[in-house]
């Protein structure tokens, strides 16, 4: 009938922003799964991290599916989201960034299948973040969820560049077209 239930049992229309955020987060996990498969084919060591990210995205979804306005204490205990995963992403970003040459121009999503899939994942991640921010602003989701998605998009960008470098693939540079 066009309605679905949150984790708290509250019925909301399927086009509610909570379900939009949940669907986009699920899409992000699927995109990361594809990037992980490409990375696995190339023997990239970061594939384990991507699996961990997919698990964290399940926790992100649990938090989103538990609107704070209707959550009881038992719900909150099961779906809380800490700052620890955000800090871990920052460590990973630093680790890979240190190994990359500095950016001197805008790059286009490119650099081989692993890199391109990670760039695609980054774009989906940014959309997921845009879906979650209004929920955080409305007091319906934990601010750490939005922080996690924000740092995750940066991680995916750095990882895309790292994958291209490791595979010896060229990143395509943005060239402004002549008028």
Task: Explain what you see.
With 179 residues, this protein is mainly alpha-helical. The protein has one domain: Cobalamin adenosyltransferase-like (Hypothetical Protein Ta1238, Chain: A). The protein is 64% helix and 3% strand. It has a two-stranded antiparallel sheet with strand order 1-2. The model has no long low-confidence stretch (mean pLDDT 91).
Tell me the strand percentage band: under 5%
By CATH, the architecture is named Up-down Bundle
* CATH level-four homologous superfamily name: Cobalamin adenosyltransferase-like
Computed structural class: mainly alpha
Biggest sheet: strand arrangement: 1-2
The count of helical stretches stands at: 6
- Any idea what the radius of gyration is? 18 Å
Highest CATH level, the class: Mainly Alpha
Topology at a glance:
Blueprint: E1 3-5, E2 11-13, H1 17-41, H2 47-64, H3 73-79, H4 84-97, H5 113-137, H6 143-167
Antiparallel strand pairs: 1-2
Helix pairs in contact: 1-2, 1-5, 4-6, 5-6
Which short descriptors sum up this protein?
179 residues, mainly alpha, Hypothetical Protein Ta1238, Chain: A, two-stranded antiparallel sheet, 6 helices, nucleotide-binding, ATP-binding
